[in-house]
Amino acid sequence: MQSVLVVIDMQHDFVDGVLGSPQAEAIVTNVRPKNRVLSRTYHIHARYS
User: Fold this and answer.
1) Among 5, 22, 27, 47, which residue's beta carbon has the most beta carbons within 10 A?
2) Mean pLDDT, rounded, for 15-38
């Protein structure tokens, strides 16, 4: 079985902006290392604001 990471609508306002929360910031902290692994393997490019 193959694992998939889907990130939808991870905008600045919802993470660490006006509508953000410490929990949302923690999600980014956990997703970044996973994205780095996927980027090396599958050439995925992501942009964090």
Assistant:
1) 27
2) 80
Helix ranges (DSSP H) in 1-49: 12-15, 22-42
What is the C-alpha separation between 22 and 4, in angstroms, rounded? 25
Sign for the pseudo-dihedral over CA of 16, 17, 20, 24: negative
| pLDDT band, very low/low/confident/very high, at 28 (cuts 50, 70, 90) | confident
What tokens does 32 get?
């970044």
Q: Which residue, among 14, 10, 2, has the nearest Cα to 31 in the 3D structure?
A: 10
Closest listed residue to residue 46, CA positions, set 20, 18, 14, 7 = 7
